[in-house]
Specification:
With 127 residues, the chain is mainly beta. It contains one helix and six strands, in the order αββββββ.
């Protein structure tokens, strides 16, 4: 088994270094660079670039701000879209529909970049 100069096995030393880097990142008082946000809301606007990509505007209630707000986020090829539990594409969902989903919020250089990770739409069933 290979050992480091400190005498720890190489795998243990690597794990300790990874843990130290992760922990050190938590000591910073600045905003988190990446945050995953779950939300429920109503689709206000869909701007399609292709059948699977574009930009979506959703009105939702923000617990943090304690009010209803509008958020805009990019929909990418990697965005998981489910319509009544079945895989779908951006072209299959409509403005005005209620949705649940997850958004990755990245903060870089004072700017926010929102990318949709998951969209779930449940349409009312016809009797």
């Amino acid at each position: 088994m290979r050992k480091t100069s400190s005498g720890y096995p190489l795998g243990v030393a690597s794990s300790m270094l990874a843990a130290a880097l992760i922990t050190a990142g938590g000591c910073n008082k600045e905003e988190k660079p990446i945050e995953i946000m779950s939300l429920e809301g109503k689709i206000e606007k869909i701007e399609r670039i292709t059948d699977t990509t574009g930009e979506i505007t959703v009105t939702f209630f923000s617990e943090k701000q304690r009010q209803e707000i509008k958020g805009v986020a990019a929909v990418t090829e990697e965005t998981e879209i489910l319509l009544d539990g079945t895989a779908a594409r951006l072209k299959d969902i409509r403005e005005g529909e209620r949705i649940r989903g997850q958004v990755r919020v990245e903060k870089k250089g004072g700017q926010k970049y929102n990318v949709v990770l998951k969209i779930q739409v449940e349409r009312a069933k016809s009797p």
